[in-house]
Amino acid sequence: MFRYRTLFSRILAVCLGVLLLSVLLMNAILMVQLRRQAVGELVSRFGDGCALIRQTFQEYYETGSTDEALLRYLREVAEKRNGAIWIADAYGQIAIELNYDDAYVGYESYARQNQKELAERIGTGDMVYTAYAGDGLYYSPVITVGCAIQKDGAVIGAVYMNGQVSGVEAVITQVQQASLAVVGVALCVGVALCFLVSRQISRPLYEMNKAAGELAKGNFDQRIEVRDRGEIGQLTETFNMMAEALKKYEDTRSSFVGNVSHELKSPLTAIQGFIQGMLDGTIPPAEEKTYLEIVLSETRRMNALIIDLLDLVRIESDQFPMHMTDWDVNELIRRCIINFIGKIEDKRIDLSVNIPEDKTLVHADIDRITQVVTNLLDNAVKFCENGGNIKIWTYESDGKVNVNISNTGQIIPPEDLKYIFDRFFKVDKSHNRKIPGTGIGLSIVREIIHRHNEKIWVNSQAGMGTVFTFTLALADTKKEK
Question: Which long-range contacts (CB under 8 A, 24 or more apart) does 413-419 make?
Fold first, then answer.
Protein backbone atom coordinates (compact mmCIF):
# COMPACT_ATOMS: atom_id res chain seq x y z
CA MET A 1 0.00 0.00 0.00
CA PHE A 2 1.24 3.49 -0.87
CA ARG A 3 1.89 5.44 2.29
CA TYR A 4 1.73 9.21 1.98
CA ARG A 5 4.07 9.85 4.92
CA THR A 6 7.01 7.87 3.63
CA LEU A 7 10.09 9.70 2.40
CA PHE A 8 9.64 8.19 -1.08
CA SER A 9 6.03 9.36 -1.36
CA ARG A 10 6.91 12.88 -0.26
CA ILE A 11 9.82 13.23 -2.67
CA LEU A 12 7.69 11.75 -5.46
CA ALA A 13 4.80 14.12 -4.71
CA VAL A 14 7.10 17.15 -4.78
CA CYS A 15 8.78 16.06 -8.03
CA LEU A 16 5.45 15.30 -9.74
CA GLY A 17 4.02 18.60 -8.55
CA VAL A 18 6.97 20.54 -9.95
CA LEU A 19 6.85 18.54 -13.19
CA LEU A 20 3.12 19.06 -13.77
CA LEU A 21 3.31 22.74 -12.85
CA SER A 22 6.21 23.23 -15.26
CA VAL A 23 4.36 21.48 -18.10
CA LEU A 24 1.19 23.49 -17.49
CA LEU A 25 3.07 26.78 -17.39
CA MET A 26 5.02 25.86 -20.51
CA ASN A 27 1.81 24.96 -22.38
CA ALA A 28 0.07 28.14 -21.27
CA ILE A 29 2.99 30.36 -22.30
CA LEU A 30 3.40 28.50 -25.60
CA MET A 31 -0.32 28.79 -26.45
CA VAL A 32 -0.32 32.50 -25.68
CA GLN A 33 2.73 33.03 -27.86
CA LEU A 34 1.31 30.94 -30.73
CA ARG A 35 -2.01 32.78 -30.64
CA ARG A 36 -0.26 36.14 -30.48
CA GLN A 37 1.90 35.25 -33.48
CA ALA A 38 -1.12 33.97 -35.45
CA VAL A 39 -3.08 37.12 -34.68
CA GLY A 40 -0.15 39.28 -35.79
CA GLU A 41 0.16 37.42 -39.11
CA LEU A 42 -3.59 37.67 -39.77
CA VAL A 43 -3.67 41.38 -38.92
CA SER A 44 -0.75 41.99 -41.27
CA ARG A 45 -2.44 40.05 -44.10
CA PHE A 46 -5.78 41.78 -43.63
CA GLY A 47 -4.07 45.17 -43.29
CA ASP A 48 -2.38 44.74 -46.68
CA GLY A 49 -5.70 43.69 -48.16
CA CYS A 50 -7.55 46.68 -46.71
CA ALA A 51 -4.89 49.06 -48.04
CA LEU A 52 -5.20 47.62 -51.57
CA ILE A 53 -8.99 47.74 -51.49
CA ARG A 54 -9.03 51.30 -50.20
CA GLN A 55 -6.68 52.46 -52.93
CA THR A 56 -8.60 50.63 -55.63
CA PHE A 57 -11.95 51.82 -54.34
CA GLN A 58 -10.77 55.44 -54.24
CA GLU A 59 -9.54 55.18 -57.82
CA TYR A 60 -12.85 53.75 -59.00
CA TYR A 61 -14.72 56.35 -56.99
CA GLU A 62 -12.84 59.22 -58.64
CA THR A 63 -13.67 57.86 -62.08
CA GLY A 64 -17.25 57.29 -61.03
CA SER A 65 -17.12 53.63 -62.00
CA THR A 66 -18.52 50.91 -59.72
CA ASP A 67 -19.06 48.19 -62.27
CA GLU A 68 -18.39 44.50 -62.15
CA ALA A 69 -14.63 45.04 -62.45
CA LEU A 70 -14.52 46.54 -58.93
CA LEU A 71 -16.59 43.73 -57.43
CA ARG A 72 -14.52 41.16 -59.23
CA TYR A 73 -11.35 42.67 -57.80
CA LEU A 74 -12.85 42.68 -54.34
CA ARG A 75 -13.72 39.00 -54.69
CA GLU A 76 -10.16 38.19 -55.72
CA VAL A 77 -8.76 39.99 -52.68
CA ALA A 78 -11.23 38.25 -50.35
CA GLU A 79 -10.45 34.83 -51.79
CA LYS A 80 -6.72 35.44 -51.71
CA ARG A 81 -6.81 36.73 -48.13
CA ASN A 82 -9.30 34.00 -47.07
CA GLY A 83 -11.55 36.44 -45.29
CA ALA A 84 -14.74 38.46 -45.45
CA ILE A 85 -14.71 41.98 -46.97
CA TRP A 86 -17.23 44.60 -45.96
CA ILE A 87 -17.58 48.03 -47.54
CA ALA A 88 -19.41 50.58 -45.42
CA ASP A 89 -20.78 53.99 -46.41
CA ALA A 90 -20.01 57.29 -44.72
CA TYR A 91 -22.64 56.53 -42.07
CA GLY A 92 -21.09 53.18 -41.09
CA GLN A 93 -23.76 51.06 -42.77
CA ILE A 94 -22.50 47.96 -44.58
CA ALA A 95 -23.17 48.40 -48.29
CA ILE A 96 -21.18 45.48 -49.75
CA GLU A 97 -20.48 42.08 -48.16
CA LEU A 98 -18.15 39.58 -49.78
CA ASN A 99 -17.73 36.49 -47.59
CA TYR A 100 -15.25 33.88 -48.85
CA ASP A 101 -14.50 32.04 -45.59
CA ASP A 102 -16.16 28.68 -44.89
CA ALA A 103 -16.15 29.43 -41.16
CA TYR A 104 -17.80 32.84 -41.63
CA VAL A 105 -21.17 31.72 -40.29
CA GLY A 106 -19.58 30.68 -37.02
CA TYR A 107 -17.99 34.02 -36.29
CA GLU A 108 -20.24 36.49 -38.15
CA SER A 109 -21.85 37.84 -35.00
CA TYR A 110 -18.46 38.45 -33.40
CA ALA A 111 -17.24 40.17 -36.58
CA ARG A 112 -20.21 42.55 -36.48
CA GLN A 113 -19.41 43.41 -32.87
CA ASN A 114 -15.85 44.16 -33.93
CA GLN A 115 -17.10 46.33 -36.82
CA LYS A 116 -19.29 48.41 -34.52
CA GLU A 117 -16.32 48.98 -32.23
CA LEU A 118 -14.04 49.97 -35.10
CA ALA A 119 -16.61 52.28 -36.67
CA GLU A 120 -16.04 54.69 -33.79
CA ARG A 121 -12.26 54.73 -34.32
CA ILE A 122 -11.89 54.49 -38.07
CA GLY A 123 -12.38 58.20 -38.89
CA THR A 124 -8.69 59.01 -38.43
CA GLY A 125 -7.72 57.31 -41.66
CA ASP A 126 -5.21 55.04 -39.97
CA MET A 127 -5.38 51.24 -40.08
CA VAL A 128 -7.10 49.89 -36.96
CA TYR A 129 -8.01 46.41 -35.81
CA THR A 130 -9.70 44.61 -32.96
CA ALA A 131 -9.94 41.01 -31.85
CA TYR A 132 -12.80 39.21 -30.16
CA ALA A 133 -11.03 36.65 -27.95
CA GLY A 134 -14.15 34.81 -26.90
CA ASP A 135 -14.22 32.61 -23.80
CA GLY A 136 -11.67 30.05 -22.69
CA LEU A 137 -8.02 29.41 -23.30
CA TYR A 138 -8.54 27.45 -26.50
CA TYR A 139 -10.92 29.80 -28.32
CA SER A 140 -9.76 31.10 -31.73
CA PRO A 141 -9.94 34.93 -31.85
CA VAL A 142 -12.00 36.74 -34.51
CA ILE A 143 -9.97 39.53 -36.14
CA THR A 144 -11.39 42.62 -37.84
CA VAL A 145 -9.13 45.12 -39.61
CA GLY A 146 -10.51 48.39 -40.99
CA CYS A 147 -9.46 51.63 -42.61
CA ALA A 148 -11.32 54.72 -43.84
CA ILE A 149 -11.92 55.58 -47.50
CA GLN A 150 -11.35 59.33 -47.88
CA LYS A 151 -11.94 61.94 -50.59
CA ASP A 152 -10.45 65.40 -50.17
CA GLY A 153 -9.95 64.76 -46.41
CA ALA A 154 -13.53 63.63 -45.90
CA VAL A 155 -14.51 60.08 -44.98
CA ILE A 156 -16.76 58.65 -47.63
CA GLY A 157 -16.70 55.05 -46.45
CA ALA A 158 -14.69 52.29 -44.83
CA VAL A 159 -13.18 48.92 -45.69
CA TYR A 160 -13.29 46.02 -43.24
CA MET A 161 -11.72 42.58 -43.45
CA ASN A 162 -12.81 39.86 -41.05
CA GLY A 163 -11.41 36.43 -40.30
CA GLN A 164 -10.84 33.90 -37.59
CA VAL A 165 -7.42 32.71 -36.48
CA SER A 166 -7.10 29.12 -37.65
CA GLY A 167 -4.53 26.41 -37.28
CA VAL A 168 -3.60 27.38 -33.72
CA GLU A 169 -5.79 24.68 -32.18
CA ALA A 170 -4.08 21.99 -34.23
CA VAL A 171 -0.65 23.21 -33.17
CA ILE A 172 -1.80 23.44 -29.54
CA THR A 173 -3.15 19.91 -29.75
CA GLN A 174 0.18 18.67 -31.06
CA VAL A 175 1.98 20.51 -28.27
CA GLN A 176 -0.33 18.95 -25.70
CA GLN A 177 0.22 15.48 -27.11
CA ALA A 178 3.97 16.01 -27.07
CA SER A 179 3.70 17.34 -23.52
CA LEU A 180 1.77 14.27 -22.43
CA ALA A 181 4.46 12.06 -23.94
CA VAL A 182 7.16 14.06 -22.15
CA VAL A 183 5.21 13.87 -18.90
CA GLY A 184 4.89 10.11 -19.28
CA VAL A 185 8.59 9.61 -19.87
CA ALA A 186 9.53 12.09 -17.14
CA LEU A 187 7.10 10.38 -14.79
CA CYS A 188 8.76 6.99 -15.30
CA VAL A 189 12.24 8.46 -14.94
CA GLY A 190 11.14 10.57 -11.96
CA VAL A 191 9.64 7.60 -10.12
CA ALA A 192 12.85 5.61 -10.62
CA LEU A 193 15.07 8.50 -9.52
CA CYS A 194 12.84 9.34 -6.54
CA PHE A 195 12.98 5.70 -5.48
CA LEU A 196 16.77 5.62 -5.72
CA VAL A 197 17.22 8.97 -3.95
CA SER A 198 14.72 8.16 -1.21
CA ARG A 199 16.32 4.77 -0.72
CA GLN A 200 19.75 6.34 -0.47
CA ILE A 201 18.44 8.78 2.14
CA SER A 202 16.11 6.46 4.04
CA ARG A 203 18.49 3.52 4.29
CA PRO A 204 20.93 5.18 6.71
CA LEU A 205 17.96 6.71 8.55
CA TYR A 206 16.42 3.26 8.92
CA GLU A 207 19.73 1.85 10.11
CA MET A 208 20.09 4.79 12.47
CA ASN A 209 16.62 4.23 13.88
CA LYS A 210 17.36 0.55 14.38
CA ALA A 211 20.71 1.30 16.00
CA ALA A 212 19.08 3.92 18.26
CA GLY A 213 16.66 1.24 19.45
CA GLU A 214 19.62 -0.99 20.31
CA LEU A 215 21.29 1.89 22.13
CA ALA A 216 18.13 2.38 24.14
CA LYS A 217 18.38 -1.30 25.17
CA GLY A 218 21.94 -0.78 26.38
CA ASN A 219 23.78 -2.22 23.39
CA PHE A 220 26.39 0.51 22.86
CA ASP A 221 28.40 -1.35 20.21
CA GLN A 222 26.10 -0.19 17.42
CA ARG A 223 27.83 1.58 14.52
CA ILE A 224 26.57 2.61 11.07
CA GLU A 225 28.63 2.45 7.90
CA VAL A 226 29.22 5.90 6.39
CA ARG A 227 28.33 5.70 2.69
CA ASP A 228 27.91 9.39 1.94
CA ARG A 229 29.91 12.56 2.53
CA GLY A 230 26.93 14.91 2.47
CA GLU A 231 24.50 15.85 5.23
CA ILE A 232 23.35 12.24 5.73
CA GLY A 233 26.98 11.12 5.98
CA GLN A 234 27.69 13.83 8.54
CA LEU A 235 24.62 12.78 10.51
CA THR A 236 25.82 9.17 10.41
CA GLU A 237 29.27 10.18 11.63
CA THR A 238 27.69 12.22 14.42
CA PHE A 239 25.54 9.23 15.40
CA ASN A 240 28.62 7.01 15.53
CA MET A 241 30.39 9.62 17.65
CA MET A 242 27.40 9.71 19.97
CA ALA A 243 27.37 5.91 20.21
CA GLU A 244 31.10 5.94 20.94
CA ALA A 245 30.62 8.61 23.61
CA LEU A 246 27.77 6.63 25.18
CA LYS A 247 29.88 3.49 25.18
CA LYS A 248 32.76 5.34 26.78
CA TYR A 249 30.41 6.88 29.32
CA GLU A 250 28.90 3.48 30.08
CA ASP A 251 32.36 1.94 30.46
CA THR A 252 33.50 4.70 32.78
CA ARG A 253 30.22 4.51 34.70
CA SER A 254 30.60 0.77 35.13
CA SER A 255 34.20 1.26 36.18
CA PHE A 256 33.13 3.99 38.59
CA VAL A 257 30.42 1.84 40.11
CA GLY A 258 32.93 -0.96 40.54
CA ASN A 259 35.49 1.37 42.07
CA VAL A 260 33.07 3.10 44.40
CA SER A 261 31.46 -0.20 45.39
CA HIS A 262 34.88 -1.60 46.20
CA GLU A 263 36.00 1.56 47.98
CA LEU A 264 32.85 1.55 50.15
CA LYS A 265 32.37 -2.18 50.59
CA SER A 266 35.92 -2.97 51.71
CA PRO A 267 36.14 -0.41 54.55
CA LEU A 268 32.58 -1.12 55.64
CA THR A 269 33.35 -4.83 55.76
CA ALA A 270 36.53 -4.15 57.74
CA ILE A 271 34.74 -1.78 60.11
CA GLN A 272 31.92 -4.28 60.62
CA GLY A 273 34.40 -7.10 61.29
CA PHE A 274 36.47 -5.09 63.76
CA ILE A 275 33.45 -3.85 65.70
CA GLN A 276 31.93 -7.32 65.71
CA GLY A 277 35.25 -8.72 66.99
CA MET A 278 35.29 -6.16 69.81
CA LEU A 279 31.72 -6.92 70.77
CA ASP A 280 32.04 -10.68 70.85
CA GLY A 281 35.48 -10.65 72.49
CA THR A 282 37.40 -12.00 69.52
CA ILE A 283 39.63 -8.93 69.69
CA PRO A 284 41.30 -8.61 73.09
CA PRO A 285 40.67 -5.34 74.95
CA ALA A 286 44.37 -4.58 74.82
CA GLU A 287 44.23 -4.46 71.00
CA GLU A 288 40.97 -2.54 70.66
CA LYS A 289 42.73 0.82 70.35
CA THR A 290 44.75 -0.42 67.39
CA TYR A 291 41.66 -1.63 65.59
CA LEU A 292 39.72 1.51 66.45
CA GLU A 293 42.47 3.53 64.78
CA ILE A 294 42.03 1.37 61.68
CA VAL A 295 38.27 1.97 61.80
CA LEU A 296 38.90 5.71 62.10
CA SER A 297 41.24 5.63 59.10
CA GLU A 298 38.66 3.78 57.01
CA THR A 299 35.89 6.21 57.95
CA ARG A 300 38.13 9.12 57.00
CA ARG A 301 38.79 7.55 53.62
CA MET A 302 35.06 7.03 53.04
CA ASN A 303 34.44 10.61 54.10
CA ALA A 304 36.99 11.83 51.54
CA LEU A 305 35.25 9.77 48.87
CA ILE A 306 31.88 11.26 49.78
CA ILE A 307 33.33 14.80 49.70
CA ASP A 308 34.69 14.16 46.19
CA LEU A 309 31.32 12.86 45.08
CA LEU A 310 29.57 15.92 46.51
CA ASP A 311 32.06 18.22 44.76
CA LEU A 312 31.39 16.43 41.49
CA VAL A 313 27.63 16.82 41.94
CA ARG A 314 28.07 20.52 42.67
CA ILE A 315 30.16 20.93 39.52
CA GLU A 316 27.58 19.14 37.36
CA SER A 317 24.73 21.24 38.84
CA ASP A 318 26.69 24.48 38.27
CA GLN A 319 26.80 25.20 42.01
CA PHE A 320 30.54 25.67 42.18
CA PRO A 321 31.07 29.40 42.93
CA MET A 322 34.39 31.07 42.23
CA HIS A 323 35.82 33.84 44.43
CA MET A 324 38.46 35.52 42.28
CA THR A 325 41.22 37.44 44.08
CA ASP A 326 44.89 38.29 43.56
CA TRP A 327 47.42 36.16 45.46
CA ASP A 328 50.92 34.64 45.26
CA VAL A 329 50.90 31.26 43.52
CA ASN A 330 54.47 30.52 44.64
CA GLU A 331 53.52 30.75 48.29
CA LEU A 332 50.53 28.45 47.71
CA ILE A 333 52.76 25.83 46.10
CA ARG A 334 55.19 26.00 49.05
CA ARG A 335 52.38 25.47 51.57
CA CYS A 336 51.01 22.53 49.61
CA ILE A 337 54.48 20.93 49.43
CA ILE A 338 54.85 21.20 53.21
CA ASN A 339 51.65 19.18 53.65
CA PHE A 340 53.19 16.32 51.66
CA ILE A 341 56.68 16.34 53.21
CA GLY A 342 55.88 13.38 55.43
CA LYS A 343 54.67 11.18 52.56
CA ILE A 344 57.58 12.28 50.37
CA GLU A 345 60.11 11.32 53.04
CA ASP A 346 58.36 8.00 53.70
CA LYS A 347 58.87 6.98 50.06
CA ARG A 348 62.37 8.50 49.93
CA ILE A 349 61.35 10.65 46.97
CA ASP A 350 63.83 13.18 45.59
CA LEU A 351 61.91 16.47 45.43
CA SER A 352 63.06 19.24 43.06
CA VAL A 353 61.33 22.62 43.25
CA ASN A 354 62.11 25.47 40.84
CA ILE A 355 59.84 28.43 41.52
CA PRO A 356 60.76 32.13 41.87
CA GLU A 357 61.43 33.51 45.32
CA ASP A 358 59.62 36.72 44.38
CA LYS A 359 55.86 36.85 44.34
CA THR A 360 53.97 35.75 41.23
CA LEU A 361 50.49 37.21 41.61
CA VAL A 362 47.65 35.47 39.83
CA HIS A 363 43.94 36.23 39.58
CA ALA A 364 42.02 33.12 40.63
CA ASP A 365 40.09 31.38 43.40
CA ILE A 366 42.77 30.49 45.95
CA ASP A 367 40.74 27.73 47.62
CA ARG A 368 39.96 25.98 44.33
CA ILE A 369 43.54 26.24 43.03
CA THR A 370 44.74 24.86 46.38
CA GLN A 371 42.46 21.91 45.69
CA VAL A 372 44.02 21.55 42.22
CA VAL A 373 47.63 21.66 43.42
CA THR A 374 46.88 19.34 46.35
CA ASN A 375 45.22 16.80 44.07
CA LEU A 376 48.05 16.87 41.52
CA LEU A 377 50.71 16.58 44.26
CA ASP A 378 48.80 13.71 45.86
CA ASN A 379 48.72 11.87 42.52
CA ALA A 380 52.43 12.57 41.94
CA VAL A 381 53.36 11.12 45.35
CA LYS A 382 50.91 8.26 45.02
CA PHE A 383 52.17 7.05 41.62
CA CYS A 384 55.84 7.84 42.14
CA GLU A 385 57.95 4.77 42.94
CA ASN A 386 60.03 4.53 46.14
CA GLY A 387 63.21 6.50 45.63
CA GLY A 388 61.77 8.25 42.56
CA ASN A 389 61.73 11.92 41.58
CA ILE A 390 59.11 14.65 41.74
CA LYS A 391 59.71 18.02 40.08
CA ILE A 392 57.70 21.20 40.49
CA TRP A 393 58.43 24.30 38.43
CA THR A 394 56.67 27.37 37.05
CA TYR A 395 57.31 29.82 34.23
CA GLU A 396 55.52 32.79 32.71
CA SER A 397 54.36 32.98 29.10
CA ASP A 398 51.90 35.26 27.24
CA GLY A 399 50.47 36.84 30.37
CA LYS A 400 50.02 33.52 32.15
CA VAL A 401 51.93 31.38 34.59
CA ASN A 402 52.39 27.70 33.79
CA VAL A 403 52.49 25.37 36.80
CA ASN A 404 54.14 21.98 36.18
CA ILE A 405 54.15 18.93 38.46
CA SER A 406 55.93 15.79 37.27
CA ASN A 407 56.78 12.40 38.76
CA THR A 408 58.62 9.30 37.72
CA GLY A 409 57.13 5.87 38.10
CA GLN A 410 53.96 4.49 36.56
CA ILE A 411 53.38 5.81 33.03
CA ILE A 412 49.90 6.56 31.71
CA PRO A 413 49.31 4.37 28.62
CA PRO A 414 48.86 6.38 25.40
CA GLU A 415 45.37 4.96 24.88
CA ASP A 416 44.35 6.26 28.33
CA LEU A 417 45.75 9.79 28.01
CA LYS A 418 42.64 11.16 26.30
CA TYR A 419 40.44 9.78 29.09
CA ILE A 420 42.62 10.73 32.05
CA PHE A 421 40.45 13.76 32.95
CA ASP A 422 37.16 11.99 32.35
CA ARG A 423 34.86 11.45 35.28
CA PHE A 424 35.17 8.10 37.06
CA PHE A 425 38.21 7.07 35.01
CA LYS A 426 41.11 5.21 36.62
CA VAL A 427 44.26 4.06 34.91
CA ASP A 428 44.60 1.22 37.41
CA LYS A 429 41.46 -0.90 36.97
CA SER A 430 42.49 -3.69 39.35
CA HIS A 431 41.04 -2.00 42.46
CA ASN A 432 44.49 -1.99 44.03
CA ARG A 433 43.95 -0.72 47.55
CA LYS A 434 47.55 0.32 47.77
CA ILE A 435 46.71 3.07 45.28
CA PRO A 436 43.57 4.69 46.70
CA GLY A 437 41.24 6.87 44.66
CA THR A 438 38.02 6.74 42.68
CA GLY A 439 38.97 8.57 39.50
CA ILE A 440 37.02 11.69 40.48
CA GLY A 441 39.88 13.97 41.52
CA LEU A 442 41.27 14.75 38.08
CA SER A 443 37.84 15.45 36.63
CA ILE A 444 37.26 17.94 39.45
CA VAL A 445 40.68 19.48 38.74
CA ARG A 446 39.82 19.90 35.07
CA GLU A 447 36.46 21.50 35.86
CA ILE A 448 38.07 23.96 38.28
CA ILE A 449 40.68 25.00 35.69
CA HIS A 450 38.02 25.29 32.96
CA ARG A 451 35.90 27.47 35.27
CA HIS A 452 38.90 29.81 35.36
CA ASN A 453 38.91 29.78 31.53
CA GLU A 454 42.37 28.22 31.64
CA LYS A 455 43.93 25.03 30.27
CA ILE A 456 45.28 21.81 31.74
CA TRP A 457 47.04 18.95 29.97
CA VAL A 458 49.22 15.94 30.62
CA ASN A 459 52.25 14.30 28.99
CA SER A 460 53.45 10.85 29.93
CA GLN A 461 56.46 9.10 28.37
CA ALA A 462 58.72 6.28 29.42
CA GLY A 463 62.01 7.59 30.79
CA MET A 464 60.62 11.08 31.35
CA GLY A 465 57.70 10.43 33.66
CA THR A 466 54.29 12.06 33.82
CA VAL A 467 53.87 15.85 33.74
CA PHE A 468 50.64 17.70 34.55
CA THR A 469 50.58 21.36 33.47
CA PHE A 470 47.92 24.02 34.03
CA THR A 471 47.81 27.76 33.39
CA LEU A 472 46.63 30.72 35.46
CA ALA A 473 46.19 34.34 34.43
CA LEU A 474 48.64 36.80 35.92
CA ALA A 475 46.97 39.42 38.10
CA ASP A 476 48.41 42.43 36.23
CA THR A 477 47.29 41.04 32.88
CA LYS A 478 43.80 40.43 34.25
CA LYS A 479 43.53 44.00 35.54
CA GLU A 480 44.66 45.45 32.19
CA LYS A 481 41.94 43.47 30.41
Answer: 417/458, 417/460, 419/248, 419/252
